[in-house]
Amino acid sequence: MHTENFYYQDGDTQCHGFIAYDDNYGHAMPAVLVAHDWSGCNEFAREKARQLAGLGYVGIAIDMYGEGRTGETNDEKSALMAPLAGDRQLLRQRILAAFHAVAEHDSVDQNRIAAIGFCFGGLCALDLARSGVDVSGVVSFHGLFTAPEGVSQEPIKAKVLALHGYDDPMVSTEQMLAFTEEMTQAGVDWQLHAYGKVMHAFTNPQANDPAFGTVYNEVAAKRSWQAAKNFFAELFESQPRMQGAKHPE
Predict the structure, then answer these.
(1) What are phi and psi of 245, to 5 degrees?
(2) 2-237 belongs to which homologous superfamily?
(3) What is the mean pLDDT of the chain?
(4) What CA–CA distance (Å, rounded) separates 89 from 158?
(5) How many CB atoms are located within 10 Å of the residue 157 CB?
(6) How much is the average pLDDT of 201-221?
(7) Considering 3, 25, 145, 244, which has the largest number of Cβ atoms within 10 A of its Cβ?
(8) For residues 85 and 95, what is the distance between their CA atoms, to the nearest angstrom?
C-alpha cells in the first residue's frame, strides 16, 4: 500500500490531507474522500483512508480546516469547526477544493469519486452532494443533517446514505425527518439507517462521554461500516470506468 501526505490548495489556504492506495495499480481506481470529525484531519481519518485502500479504492483523508490544524479539547475543536459550520458557502468551497484536487490525482477514476464523513464530516459529505458536483455517492456517519442556508440550491446527483444513531442528542427527530424530506423533494436515491440505543460518534473507539452524548458502540460501528462497503460496491460496480485509464509514472 502506498501512503503519503496529500497537499492541495483552497485559494490561499494549503490543506494537509493524506492519501492511500494500492501501489501496484494498473488502472484508475474509484476514490473515496474521508471528511474528518470536528477534531481535524487526525489518525482516525487517516486510518479510514487506509481501510478504503484495502478495499481497492483510493482513500483520501481531507483537511477541512487547512494547514493540518487539529484540536485536542472540546473548546479547541469547536473553535476550528465554527467558521465552517457557520458559513456553509465557505464549507462548500473547502470541500469542493478537495474534490477537484482528488479528481486530478493519477490514481483516480474521475467518473467514480465518492465521500464519507464522520460527525461534522458527515455534514461536509452531505454538503458536497448538495453542491451539485458530479460526486457518485456520499455516506454520513453520525453526521449533522441541517440543510445549508444562504447558498445556491443545486440538483443533487449523488446517491446518499446516512448512518445515524437514533439516540444522538445532537440531531433531533425533527431534523432527521426534515433531512429525509429534503432528500425526497430533491429526487435523491437516498437511504437512512437508524440504530436504536445508539448515540453520537458511535464509530469512534475514543468516544466515551455519555453526558456529552458521544459514546462508541462496537455493534453499530461494524454494522455501519458494512453498510458503507455494500453501498460503495453497488455504487462503483454500476458506473462505467473512465475511458483511457491512467497509470503510475
Answers:
(1) -60, 145
(2) Alpha/Beta hydrolase fold, catalytic domain (3.40.50.1820)
(3) 95
(4) 19
(5) 15
(6) 97
(7) 145
(8) 13
Query: Strands of 108-118's sheet, edge to edge?
Result: 2-10, 13-21, 58-61, 29-35, 108-118, 137-141, 159-165, 190-195
Give the pLDDT confidence score for residue 245 in this predicted structure: 46
Coil, strand or helix at 70: strand
* Domain residue limits, the chain: 2-237
Q: What are phi and psi of 179, to 5 degrees?
A: -65, -45
CA angle 50, 146, 158 (to 5 degrees): 55
Non-local (6+) Cβ contacts of 36 within 8 A are 42, 44, 45, 61, 62, 63, 64, 117, 118, 120, 121
Which DSSP string do the residues of 72-85 spell out, in sequence order? SSHHHHHHHHHHHH
The H-or-E segment that residue 100 falls in is helix 88-103
Cell numbers for 231: 453501498
Dmax (CA) for the chain in angstroms is: 53
Average pLDDT over residues 73-99: 98
Residue appearing with cell numbers 455534514: 123
What is the predicted pLDDT for the residue at 24? Answer: 85
> Could you tell me if residue 226 is left (phi over 0), alpha (psi between -120 and 50 degrees) or otherwise beta?
alpha
The Cα 124–Cα 118 span in angstroms is 9
Grid coordinates of 55: 478495499
DSSP states along 5-36: EEEEEETTEEEEEEEEE-TT--S-EEEEEEE-
pLDDT attached to residue 27:
86
Among the listed residues 10, 216, 38, the one whose alpha carbon sits nearest the alpha carbon of residue 120: 38
